[in-house]
Amino acid sequence: MYDVAIIGGGHNGLTAAAYLGAAGLKVVVLEKNAHVGGAAFTEEFHPGFRNSVAAYTVSLLNPKVIRDLDLARHGLRIVERPVANFWPVDERRALLMPYGLAARQKAIAAFSERDAARLPEYDAALGRAASVLKRLVLETPPNAGGGLRELWKGARLSRSILGLPLETQRDLAGLFTESASDFLARWFENETVKAAFAFDGIVGTYAAPSTPGTAYVLLHHCFGEVNGKAGIWGHAVGGMGAISAAIAKAAGEKGADIRTDAAVREIMVEKGRAAGVVLASGEKVEARAVAAAVAPKLLFSRMLPEGVVAPALQTRLANLKSGSGTFRMNVALSELPDFTCRPNSEHGTQHLASGVVIGPTLDYLERAWLDARGGGWSKEPVVEILIPSTLDDTLAPPGRHVASLFVQHVAPHLPAPRSWSDPREKEAFADLVVDTVTRHAPNFKASVLARQILSPLDLEKRFGMIDGDIFHGALSLDQLFSLRPVLGHADYRMPLSGLYLCAAGAHPGGGVTGVPGHNAAREIIRDLMAWWT
Fold this sequence. Notes:
The protein is built from 18 helices and 20 strands. It is α/β, with parallel strands linked by helices. A hairpin with a 5-residue loop joins strand 6 and strand 7. About 55% of the residues are buried.
């Protein structure tokens, strides 16, 4: 008998296991795949070429989790990108966004001196909002129907918000309700500059920058830091799997039992309480509590016996809004891409160690979503390219490289009778993605030695990301904070006694953060160990 059985060995499930084990609880992690890590996993996809399969970059991994689990001692090393992002615009122009306010202003001034002058004010507004939200990510949200304790928590939160300067309150209100386009229009006029900032508002989100709520997604991607430096993006040496491997070592050191090839078929329920799980093999694993490190939509549509949750609530949870509009590719390259607007022979290759984003204007981002809504995918997709082998020579043979292509927008489900289950569909879109990059870097297509392709359906089948949703549910106002995953169950406790949610479908949402696992573990410990305060 275990104290806690955790469904899913992604980074959040492993994080929860490490904290639970540290508290003295007997824990088992049950992962359906042959390896732990979920989407944060590194594999060889072509002889000699290794890359992060799905998750692809580091910034949001919470510093408290890194410290508490001593991940550096367990082998995690994160290196910083030398510059933030690079946006090819056309054959002559590009926006190379470095770090540092003065350098960013200089880069933006080439497109709009007015926008460069407004940048400090924008940075300050976003920084103030992010600082408020950063304080909330490690908290359990006030839970509707939770009694006096939750009322007090809500009142305390309200006082802290109302105590902020009025302008900060206005910015927060805008970030939670507005579109990225409308929010950015207060500061910037140039379409390329606005696109550079709006991109964060559509990452992993099946929406246009003009869609209300995308301003929050923009903010969600501003919480990060690398090696104590705010706003920096980086690379885990060895790929994203190095993060999962380090957390797994921390969990194992704390006594967690980690099992692979252990797919969960159903949650066992006894006397109205989660009592363990039944594996696909038929084996029963008994536990005092079950923590689900899977998408809530998966949990409530496929893993619970019929009738154990009120039908209306079960239906609501099984039909949460999800779908990232995301298509993922890894490619093995014979050489680095050479962008027409910034030739390697003249400028070197430092810009290729950044996030290279093909999405040159706000209108381009908008049309990409409209295309996908109408025809299943973008005729001119938004492509973010990372080439981690420029920072990590363990990933490819000498002189060769690997690239991650993170693509928006595709429909989570293609218009009938088409389907992502048809290999011709994903191959055709992959060809279009390669051609899109090649328009800006003419040598790219010829340099591709091999490619690994993950459609939304592939992401669902391999990692349990229903509808291909990398966030386990949309980061929209109706699915955030006390409403995530649904009102009344935002405290990680699900509507079955003894069942908890400990992954991205819970507060604070998606990204490789470790925070849902951290927060859920705290609540499980409170419930199972009366001495916890």
